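Tokens in:
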């Protein structure tokens, strides 16, 4: 922190902050910008033609019986299919083939989900973004990398001692003899209880909201951007989960099937597919539940925290999904409309005193100071 003049107002310090942030984003982030650019040209732009080609089919599908059937059955069908495929993958224990299948899964889910987004979109506005797909592809690998690192950190910290101490009790506690499908459901039920409180804390504690804002920076919802998370969120979540998961430790096979199921629910949480989910929206954190969660107005967005399940929101009073309403498609961070949208910017943003101003492109310095009504802001509560 600059020592010079403690009486400096926030305004006076801003240009300096802006310069440092811009410098870091531009130069330290240069390799990432290059990668975003390459991905955009190699992967995103060439496939755009194909996706746009499906649009004419989506108009033909509108109002048909086929679309009605698909919108009611796609989610439950995928759920059953995921459990079936997951159990098949671990049938003979965890082999290298299981792991290859597991690594390929997000790609398979993408190939499965992306055409449905185009054929029966919830919002046509959400069908195309700017550079967000390139950013999300990098964030996917970044997430995998930081998950690996978090495993090492959890091992290195004192937690490893506790995990070992709890392990004998954990194995006794876990009902290994139950039907595998029930074990998977139980694992998700326990894990999501912790996810609920962790996610709620990410929204309600200003310092944590800064970190989680990276996830809420998305301006549209589509199958891939559920994985967008700041490394600090990934690391702290892993540490937060370590003790409870050590206590109830199921077999690696059950955990793997549960992760596959979580991935498929996660994709439907963010997907831009217009589904008729009915009572599934009272069990799972999908569809409209998560669209409200991404509202720019935190008065509404601070709701529906469940990772896979919505039951804890119903139980603890944070469920928001009025039956007679259809969520609008203007999403993002109401308090920081100019939030950085590059990988480097997303990495840096939580450490800046005022993200809204620092990354603004035009220099209308003092003018606007608009926070959404009822919003807790990204700015420091100095
Ligand atoms: Zn959130
Ligand atoms: Zn989300």
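Residues out:
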């Amino acid at each position: 922190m600059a020592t010079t003049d403690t009486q400096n107002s926030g305004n006076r310090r801003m240009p300096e902050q802006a310069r440092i942030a811009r410098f870091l984003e531009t130069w330290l982030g240069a390799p990432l910008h290059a990668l975003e650019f390459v991905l955009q040209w190699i992967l995103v732009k060439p496939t755009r033609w194909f996706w746009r080609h499906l649009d004419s089919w989506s108009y033909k599908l509108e109002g048909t019986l086929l679309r009605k059937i698909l919108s009611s059955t796609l989610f439950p069908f995928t759920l059953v299919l995921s459990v079936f495929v997951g159990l098949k993958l671990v049938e003979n224990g965890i082999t290298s083939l299981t792991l290859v299948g597991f690594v390929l899964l997000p790609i398979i889910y993408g190939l499965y989900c992306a055409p449905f987004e185009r054929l029966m979109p919830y919002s046509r506005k959400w069908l195309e973004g700017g550079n967000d797909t390139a950013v999300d592809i990098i964030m996917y690998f970044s997430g995998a990398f930081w998950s690996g690192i978090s495993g090492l950190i959890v091992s290195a910290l004192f937690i490893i001692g506790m995990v070992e101490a709890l392990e004998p009790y954990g194995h006794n506690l876990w009902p290994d003899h139950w039907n595998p499908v029930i074990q998977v459901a139980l694992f998700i039920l326990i894990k999501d209880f912790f996810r609920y409180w962790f996610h709620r804390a990410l929204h309600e504690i200003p310092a944590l909201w800064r970190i989680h804002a990276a996830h809420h920076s998305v301006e549209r919802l589509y199958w891939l951007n559920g994985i967008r998370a700041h490394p600090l969120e990934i690391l702290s979540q892993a540490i937060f989960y370590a003790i409870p998961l050590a206590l109830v430790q199921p077999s690696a096979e059950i955990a793997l099937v549960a992760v596959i199921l979580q991935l498929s629910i996660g994709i439907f949480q963010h997907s831009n597919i217009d589904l008729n989910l009915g009572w599934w929206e009272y069990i799972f954190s999908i569809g409209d539940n998560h669209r409200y969660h991404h509202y720019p107005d935190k008065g509404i967005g601070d709701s529906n925290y469940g990772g896979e399940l919505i039951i804890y929101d119903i139980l603890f009073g944070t469920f928001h999904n009025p039956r007679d309403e259809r969520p609008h498609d203007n999403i993002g961070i109401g308090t920081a409309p100019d939030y950085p949208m590059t990988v480097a910017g997303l990495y840096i943003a939580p450490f800046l005193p005022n993200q809204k101003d620092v990354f603004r492109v035009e220099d209308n310095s003092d003018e606007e100071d608009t926070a959404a009504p009822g919003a807790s802001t990204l700015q420091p509560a100095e």
